[in-house]
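RECORD TYPE: protein structure
NAME: EGF-like domain-containing protein
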Amino acid sequence: LCEDNRPCYEICDVGERCYNLSCSCGSEGKCGKGELCQLDICMCGRKRGGCRPHEDCINGMCVCKTSSCDQCNNSCKSNEICLDGTCVCTNQCQNAFCPLPCLNGGRCTGFYQCTCRRGWQGLRCERRDINLEN
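PREDICTED:
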């Protein structure tokens, strides 16, 4: 219910109060009682980007995904990183092998090492290089 005991037609994010059936930002992004729109749970902050890629929104909280590894607990070896739930070697390992393909025309040149085409960066060449001058 909204502050004036009318039902909310729009679900508010965590920390947002419902006034006249529309949501406005509350303080500190915390769930409160009474004045905040009430559901059984507060929602994950979809207007603030939601949960990180390695998390799921469960009962209104961002929780690490269950997988063979997770980025929250650093469960991979020192020469590995957790990528999409799989521990993969960094360039300290031997052999040219990329278990997850390089993107945007990148080439696998080491054990999980992508050489990106101009304009791309990241482990898999997944991000545009914003520092590239035109």
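COMMENT: Confidence is low (pLDDT under 50) at residues 19-43.
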